[in-house]
């Protein structure tokens, strides 16, 4: 499979997972399958909870902002990414993470805002940096393991002061890099853990172990560890893009983000051809703060090509 198909799968697959999961956010386990018992029958992009059918949420909106900054700046310009996030947050998107909102609205400089918030809150290990990693995962993959993991950490640190969020985002970047190269990201987990900060290695080793199951999570899946663990579990226990994101949404809880992370991985592994057209046809990504733009699947594909593959 051409590398481009995997890159498109990561970016579009993540957005589709986000839109598919959004109506089920904070719902119970199994709600998706209860409503859509048979795979492949359509109608799953159902909307609800304030979301239109196929409408992607903050996860994808922020991933697009990251991707467009990387393309337009020709590289990682963290102050530019932060400014785009601020502009977006000020336009009152339908959803925004509590912590992301606090950091972006703090008035503190880009390189201090997340750290200052963490000092006072001590709670910053949400999945809000993990959820927006598909575009940067594609862009930085050519740098190799250490380069892509470092970029992932720095992007996460813009809004999340807790190193746990940096390390989780770094691992996801590395697993995407492996998948984009056509290799098995599941087989790369042990190797990727060796590049994780030692203070955080054990906790990620636990949730990424083959025997781990989302029922074993010790936090809500809005936290970075079970979110990443659940996405990897969904990839490991299925053999198609569709089944992977279905399993992710069926976990309940923070369904849009767990499915966005799952969709990035499963899209990179199975390729964009595995992402059902009945889902990409209705996918759309409003971008508050940026002149009323609404990106469709073709726009995400164009962005992905510019990110390089
Ligand atoms: Mg969301």
TrEMBL record:
The keyword Membrane does not apply. Keywords: Hydrolase. Signal peptide: none annotated. Pfam families: ADP_ribosyl_GH. It comes from the Bacteria. The keyword Transmembrane helix does not apply. Belongs to the ADP-ribosylglycohydrolase family. This is ADP-ribosylglycohydrolase family protein. The lineage of its organism: Bacteria, Bacillati, Actinomycetota, Actinomycetes, Kitasatosporales.
């Amino acid at each position: 499979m051409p590398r481009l198909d995997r890159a498109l799968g990561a970016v579009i697959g993540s957005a589709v997972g986000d839109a598919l999961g959004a109506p089920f956010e904070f719902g119970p386990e199994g709600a998706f399958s209860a409503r859509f018992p048979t795979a492949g029958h359509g109608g799953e992009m159902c909307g609800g909870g304030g979301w239109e059918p196929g409408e992607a949420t903050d996860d994808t909106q922020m991933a697009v902002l990251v991707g467009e900054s990387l393309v337009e700046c020709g590289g990682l310009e963290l102050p530019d990414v932060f400014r785009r996030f601020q502009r977006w947050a000020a336009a009152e998107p339908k959803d925004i993470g509590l912590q992301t909102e606090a950091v972006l609205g703090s008035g503190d400089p880009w390189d201090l805002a997340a750290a200052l918030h963490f000092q006072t809150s001590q709670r910053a290990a949400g999945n809000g940096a993990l959820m927006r990693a598909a575009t940067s995962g594609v862009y930085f993959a050519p740098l190799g393991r250490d380069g892509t993991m470092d970029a992932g950490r720095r992007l996460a640190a813009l809004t999340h002061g807790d190193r746990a969020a940096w390390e989780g985002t770094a691992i996801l970047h590395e697993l995407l890099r492996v998948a984009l190269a056509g290799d098995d990201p599941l087989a790369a987990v042990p190797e990727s853990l060796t590049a994780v900060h030692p203070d955080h290695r054990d906790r990620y080793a636990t949730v990424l172990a083959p025997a781990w199951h989302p029922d074993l999570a010790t936090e809500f899946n809005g936290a970075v560890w079970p979110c990443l663990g659940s996405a990897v579990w969904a990839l490991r226990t299925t053999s198609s893009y569709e089944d992977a994101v279905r399993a992710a949404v069926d976990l309940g809880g923070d369904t849009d983000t767990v499915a966005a992370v799952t969709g990035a991985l499963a899209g990179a592994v199975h390729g964009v051809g595995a992402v059902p057209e009945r889902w990409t046809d209705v996918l759309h990504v409003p971008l508050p703060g940026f002149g009323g733009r609404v990106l469709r699947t073709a726009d995400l594909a164009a962005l992905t090509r510019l990110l390089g593959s």
